[in-house]
Amino acid sequence: MWLIRIVATVSMLVAAGALARVEATASEVVSAQSDAGATRSEPESGGENGDRSMARRAGFGAFLQLGVEHIWTGYDHLLFLLALLVVCRDLRSVLVIVSCFTVAHSVTLGLATMDWVRLPPKVIEVAIAASIVLVGVENLWRGGEALRGRAAVTLIFGLVHGFGFANVLRDFGVGRDGGGIALPLFSFNLGVELGQLAIAAVVLPIYWQLARDEQRARAARKWTSLATVGLGGYWLLERAVGA
């Protein structure tokens, strides 16, 4: 348990540092958007010039914070991650799942940001909701036990979630006209990874504490998975039939 406490402490310190940057980053983003809007208002300048200005103004720290904020406020991504982690039994399995998710969404995030691959937003949102339902159903079907092949499932569905992340970087003009993409992608994904680890460090010790009593642990996994299926199903229907 001492290792878990160390990881939790470090992750919470990272989270606290990230929160401290929220206001500064928000000001930077608003300023960049204002400049982009001013650029778009000039007849001789295209909209993409404003987007590139936003990308240039936002540095490593801004994209790092953007990644943390996006994973913390992306409730569908968080629920998907929770459904994956709830059956993890140790720190190693947590790191494997979190890293697989990050690697997978990094691939499609990069492809989509550079406009090499583009899918309709509605298709992406429906697919993300479906991934949440499927993982929750699998948890229930297998009785919440540690699942073999969960890393592969994370990689496959992580590719879908990467398309959902892409719009964030597109709004900054990242990758437009051959612009630099390595630094934004690296820092954004690092922020997502740190945000995920911070959440895992808070939630998982509670589950592992419950795991000392197998009956309570099974109940916690069952109700978490049922909630996952319920919320995911609601989002699936809402997004499938919505405008």
Question: Which helices and strands appear, and what pairs or packs with what?
Answer:
Elements lengths: L1 H19 L1 H20 L5 H11 L2 H14 L1 H11 L5 H23 L7 H21 L8 H21 L11 H29 L3 H28 L2
Helix pairs in contact: 1-9, 2-3, 2-4, 4-9, 5-7, 5-10, 6-8, 6-9, 7-8, 7-10
Textual characterization of the structure:
- This protein is mainly α.
- The protein has one domain.
- Helices cover 81% and strands 0% of the residues.
- The protein is built from 10 helices and no strands.
- The relative contact order is 0.17.
- Residues 1-56 have low confidence and may be disordered.
| Element order: H for helix, E for strand | HHHHHHHHHH
Overall pLDDT confidence: 74
Fraction in helix: over 70%
- Ranges with pLDDT <50 over ≥5 residues? 1-56
Q: How much beta, percentage-wise?
A: under 5%
Largest sheet: none
C-alpha termini separation? 48 Å
- Give the total of domains: 1
